[in-house]
Amino acid sequence: MKKKVVSSTLALTLALSGLGIGASSIHADDSEVKMNEKYGTPSYIIENWEMPKFSSLTKQSHSVEDIALSYLNYQKDKFKLKGNSNENFKVIDTQKDEKAGTSHVRLTEQYKGVPIYGAHQTVTLNEEEEVKAFFGKVVPNMDEKGIDTTAEISDDQAIETAKASIEKEIGEVEAYDAPPSSELFIYEFDGKFQLTYLVKASTSDPEPGYFHYFINAQTGEIVDNYNAIDHVKAFGEGVLGNKEMFEVTFQEGDYYMFDGTRGDGVHTFDALNMEPGWFNLFSQLLGYHGEEVTSGHKYFGDAAAVDAHKNAGIVYDYFKETFNRDSYDDNGARMISSVHVGENWNNAAWNGVQMMYGDGDGETFIPLSGAVDVIGHELTHAVTDRSADLVYQDEPGALNESLSDILGAMVDRDDWWMGEDIYTPGVEGDGLRSLKDPSQVPHPFYPDRGYPDHYSELYTGELDNGGVHINSSINNKAAYLVSEGGTHYDVEVEGVGREATEQIYYRALTKYLTATSDFSMMRQAAIQSAIDLYGENSAEVSSVMQAYDAVGVE
Ligand code: L5Q
Ligand code: ZN
User: Fold this and answer.
1) Which of 228, 306, 453, 519 gives the lowest tally of CB atoms within 10 Å of its CB?
2) C-alpha closest to that of 367 among 310, 448, 322, 444
3) Is any atom of ligand 1 closer than 6 Å to the C-beta of 469?
4) What's the rounded mean pLDDT across residues 89-104?
5) Which atom of ligand 1 sits closest to the CA of residue 404?
6) Contacts of 255 (CB under 8 A, 6+ apart)
7) Nearest ligand to the C-alpha of residue 346?
């Protein structure tokens, strides 16, 4: 922006009317003016103006508002306005700064009693009630614009028009957050001034919005509209004291954890320790996710919420950048998370609708949203639900779990652990599961064994839905071998790296596997995916074959 300061040495045309007659003590030479280039009226005037007195004998007292209006009247030629300042301006607020001794009068320009949208001013007075400054925007020559200020439609009609347009855009709104408001303004659009209703409407569902509609008050047409929801970056500390920056929304004085920059949004709630079973029911049946996580400023103090929100964004970006997948349904579905589910709940889950995170008992687990591989794991369940839809039982269930572990470990790609960041705080070198060496983590049902890493060790009992979190390790180990290689049960595998491995498994999940796929089908789906991506005779195809040979899956 160009900044041009014009020193005003205008000869004083003392066309004072109304209150100011026979003025003295006007030090116009001290004033400094900057003009608005579009309107040719002042954007600011640095002043030293004293209200003229009728007589030096009688001490008159005027309110600061009267003085501000008199000043605007005195400057009416600069503002290119006819008539009295009482008609052209309306005082909307006055603030006294006791410390500085200044008064600040806030006004709006009006025409025939109707405010002009965006034409606001402040006039500053010192202790001696001298005007020291004018700031703002004044639209000139309002009387020449031929504006008809008689409304032909009602404010209710304007509201109905706005609602119809909003719901055409975002779908049916069952309940507005508050009854939409409607107020008359003169609104300038494409250089034309017209009488409009400004309708403001707040929504949470189906989409958060703070809609502003300008409706022509004579024709009922929509002149202009925008959504005033603000995307802002906020800050906070996560579960491990990690400093994070993340997207939130500002609405009516508060910030809340809605990130409107990813798909249809990433939205994080506080479940207020509601028991997991009840919460699940409320979430699935009523669409209740808990309370909004809000803050009066840009710092958020809820560590579990900070990480859930930040990590959901990281996982969104991972799927978008790695597979060009737009959220879990590949259609921008809103990612909803709730933290503080249950009391000391040692788990996290995807319940078909949203993610749920416990706070952990502080001993086995700390708040589970603190680990980005856990978020990757849960959101991969959501991807699976919308693609292969593997039944959560026996071998298909183990594959369902394994694909969540594999892609979870790809999001958090500096190790092959699952949940190491939130599992047994204070214990180094452990995790919930290891993809690299499943056998080093104790088997949940047989304390003298580790997790299975070969098909010969398949758990065939009924616990854990037929061992979905146990047998997953067999496929996890295969995926690890495809990526990193190694010799396993005397079978040598040539690794092809994480980039190829994640593409192979994502393709198998979304293009080949079905609800009842078993381990053998997984092997073929991975081979077929590697052929599609890298060719029949590629190192990637060999690697997949060797890896499944190594874990005993034919
Ligand atoms: C599990 C998800 C996670 N939960 N493992 C039982 O065994 C049971 C649940 C899990 F995010 F907490 F890791 O993986
Ligand atoms: Zn899982």
Assistant:
1) 228
2) 310
3) yes
4) 94
5) 14
6) 232, 234, 248, 249, 294, 295, 296, 297, 298, 300
7) 1
